[in-house]
Amino acid sequence: MNNEIYIHIDKISKSYGNVQALDQISLDIKKNELFGFIGPDGAGKTSLFRILTTLILPNSGNATIDGYDTVKDYKMLRKNIGYMPGKFSLYQDLTVEENLNFFASVFGAKLKDNYYLIESIYKHLEPFKKRRAAKLSGGMKQKLALCCALIHKPDLLVLDEPTTGVDAVSRYEFWIMLKNLRENGITILVSTPYMDEASLCDRVALMQNGKIMIVDTPQAIVANYPYKLFAAKSIHKSDLISLLEIDPRIRSAFAFGETIHITLANEKLPITQLESDLKLKITDLTIQATEANIEDCFLMMGTNYEKS
Amino acid sequence: MNRMTGFIYKEILHIIRDYRTMMIIFALPTIQILLFGFVVSMDIKNVKVGVMDNSKDDVTRAITEKIAATQKFKITEMVYTSEQIDQAFKKGTINCAVIFEDDFGRKLKKEHKAQIALILDGSEPNTANLTANYTSSIIRKYQEQNMPIDLKITQVKPSIVMHYNPELKSSYMFVPGVISLILLLICVLMTSVTITREKEFGSMEVLLVSPLRPIQIIIGKVAPYLILSFVDVIVILLMSYFVFDLPMKGSLVLLLGESILFITLALSLGIFISTVAKNMQQAMFISLIGLLMPSMILSGFMIPIANMPTIYHYISLIMPPRWFIVIIKNIMIKGSGFWAVQTETYVLLGMTIFFIAISAKRFKTRLD
Amino acid sequence: MKSHNKVIEVENLVKRFGDFTANDNLTFDVYEGEVFGFLGANGAGKTTAMRILCGLSRPTSGKILVAGWDAATHPEDIKKNIGYMSQKFSLYEDMTVKENIRFYGGIYGLSRNEVKTKITEMIEKVGIGGLENKLIRELPIGWKQKLAFAVAIFHDPKIVFLDEPTGGVDPFTRRQFWSMIYDAAKSGITVFVTTHYMDEAEYCDRVSIMDEGKIVALDTPENLKKMYGVSTMNDVFIKIVRPELI
């Protein structure tokens, strides 16, 4: 992957009334990166994507894509972006085939010229090609929307929450397709509220409340987690977490599925001491060291980290 | 608060906090009252009368003055030939012609009978009927007041001719109106809805981020309706001719040409509404309540404009169907050529250009 | 507190739309005080089944008892005894917090005093003191969802149905939400929840997974992980629904 900067975003702000959707966002995205914007609803992901795809104007700041300004050169940019907004805007009353042909024609592309790009994705859809888009399952709609965005071989693919509301398996398959697309030289921007998808990107920006908390490779972000992290486990999950939350030796305690991730107020405290102490109340308790993941980092950077 | 009361209270909150609902609840009845209250009247007003006085004696002058003195009537011209009468009807400068035969006064006194003919514009059957009755009663009153009592036996009954519509068919009245209404409905309502639907469903976003220029999106949206409504015009004209016996006295080509002009105007109105409305519901509301309903009432479709209070005359000037109905009636029923309808045509043309320009300006290339 | 009383009994539930079978002979029970996770791919038939359990839709055939009432014949009685919350709709956006609570209080037949008490309780529980007169649409999404849940259970229903309640919510609020779910379960309310977050599946006492109209797995997360020889519910899900991916 080369280091050429493809997208340059400089202090972009956007507000709607008195809601600040984006607050002085600055970052650079490299060519051919698979770049993820990770954050919950209200983080500003959709607003940022709409600014980049030239659909709305920022209140201040500017952005360029491949040297073209998103405000002044919008006509040029609109020809080369493949955009998939949230809830995959497909034409519900057109069939799979008809949707694809329509988007191809809008971009002056021929289906057969660019078929290689969508081939691996389309093969899932092929048996349904005469079915109306409204009757497809969420996972299928997602694949179709992706094909429609790709069919004109764009240089930049912008996908706004393509995996939201879709089951875990379809999400997984979708990311495999994205990784394969990278091989074709396309730069891909994806936004998602699912923290676990961050690890599938080249680099990510963690966003919340209109601000970017950090931009880096997912590996670097977790490597820089500043505390020792432990995973506490017990069958009696809710009792355990109640206990941990009131224990002054624990800096933070967050449920993570099977285990509870904890950090210590005083890192010098030997963990075995803590473990045996707590075992008196929760007999099947085990505590082990563990690696932080993106969600741990997100929680740490959020404003609610320290227990009150 | 019990179940029912709580629910009612919630519904009231929803209504108060949604300005659109408030508009419908308060603005709509107000508009309807204003429109129906003042506009719908079975009275005739402002009847334009042309008098052909072949006799020019004191009796005819007296009767003419009597007519002129009536508030409802206005003598707009004196005519001298039947061609003049025909032209005047076509141009619309008279709705009623009163024709006295020559030597009227003498014939009445000596022979106890004389001819008066009334010719009325049959393309407005309701008005024509009322006008005929009213004019006849004026003439009768004159006789009652001025003839010697013993001569009351002789009564001059005017012979009445309904020009253009001898059988006084009501279809002459409603078919032109229905054509305009259907075209408006299809072109304005459907166009505005289909464009705002794209916005509402989010697919407009995807179309914008593509090489498609906004003008191409609009033309693409509008083209099918142009074709469909043109087909509709032909179907309606065929039905009017064969089923309702509406004549086709004028040029078919001219009529179709004017129809295309009207369709284009309606389409541009639809596009304009789509630039104002934020979603389909608003588009429908504006199209139906803001345009279609007032058009129906103020276009002269059901109620002749002449019968409305003067202020509505001015308001009706901005209603496109008002002009188109005149054009249709002129071409189909009166057999006029372009010269008779050129004012109306230029008005429609001007409106079309205006709305296309303003829509082009308003059409947003961005979502903001 | 889990007991052995069944609050939901489903036996051979079938729901057909024309010749399409959305629910194909589902059989399962849910016990009082359980946190029951109802998982499945999109289009698997989850929403259809949930609607039937909530009394919103009639089954084609099968025996379904919810809170003691037959879903086919007494859906209205079911509705009186359950709470419901979904991602798409929770509270009325153009009403304030207090107005929403008062409204639902009225619907469920609570007296004025009871409602007053509940308002105070809820504001404290959710932590939105000072915001009770704000319109719902002005609240951040996390608080909306927490409040919606509190309202869904404030009439002490036997069962509360949650349809993807934490979609798009930030990770901190998600955990607060689940802590509220645990508290509710402890007080005896049965929680029936669907979610796409596989880590949330781990928080459930038992989980069922639907695929193409059928239930293909039903057990505790622990047992399922052992059975399929994997360490997370995410892997269990993938293994069951699309084994060729692993």
Task: Write up this protein.
The complex is a heterotrimer of chains A (308), B (368) and C (246). With 308 residues, chain A is an alpha/beta fold. Chain A has helices spanning 45-52, 74-80, 96-106, 111-125, 138-150, 168-182, 218-223, 237-246, 271-279, 294-301, and strands at residues 5-16, 19-30, 34-38, 60-65, 68-69, 81-84, 156-160, 187-192, 203-208, 211-216, 230-233, 250-256, 259-264, 286-289. In chain A, strands 6-7-8-3-9-10 form a six-stranded mixed beta sheet, sandwiched between helices. A four-stranded antiparallel beta sheet of chain A has the order 2-1-4-5, with helices on one face. Chain B is an alpha/beta fold and 368 residues long. Chain B has 14 helices and five strands. In chain B, strand 1, helix 3 (58-69) and strand 2 form a beta-alpha-beta unit. With 246 residues, chain C is an alpha/beta fold. The N and C termini of chain C lie far apart (37 Å). The model of chain C has no long low-confidence stretch (mean pLDDT 88). The interface between B and C is medium-sized, with 12 and 13 residues.
Question: In a nutshell, what does this entry contain?
Answer:
By secondary structure, chain A is an alpha/beta fold. Chain A has helices at 45-52, 74-80, 96-106, 111-125, 138-150, 168-182, 218-223, 237-246, 271-279, 294-301; strands at 5-16, 19-30, 34-38, 60-65, 68-69, 81-84, 156-160, 187-192, 203-208, 211-216, 230-233, 250-256, 259-264, 286-289. In chain A, the strands form three sheets. In chain A, strands 6-7-8-3-9-10 form a six-stranded mixed beta sheet, sandwiched between helices. Chain A has a four-stranded antiparallel beta sheet with strand order 2-1-4-5, covered by helices on one side.
Strand order of the largest sheet of chain B: 2-1-3-4-5
What is the overall number of helices of chain B? 14
Distance between the termini of chain B: 43 Å
Give, in order, the helices and strands of chain A.
Answer: EEEHEEHEHHHEHEEEHEHEEHEH
Mean pLDDT of chain A: 90
Specify the oligomeric state: heterotrimer
Helix run count of chain A: 10
Elements of chain B, N to C (H/E): HHEHEHEHEHEHHHHHHHH
Q: C-alpha Rg of chain A, in Å?
A: 22 Å
Characterize the overall form of chain A: globular
- How big a fraction of the residues of chain B is strand? 5-15%
User: In whole angstroms, how far apart are the ends of chain A?
Assistant: 45 Å
SS class of chain A:
alpha/beta
Largest sheet of chain B: 5 strands, mixed
The strand order across the widest sheet of chain A is: 6-7-8-3-9-10
Major sheet size, sense and barrel closure of chain A: 6 strands, mixed
In terms of DSSP E residues, the strand content of chain A is 25-35%
- Helix-residue proportion of chain A: 25-40%
The total beta strand count of chain B reads 5
Radius of gyration of chain B: 26 Å
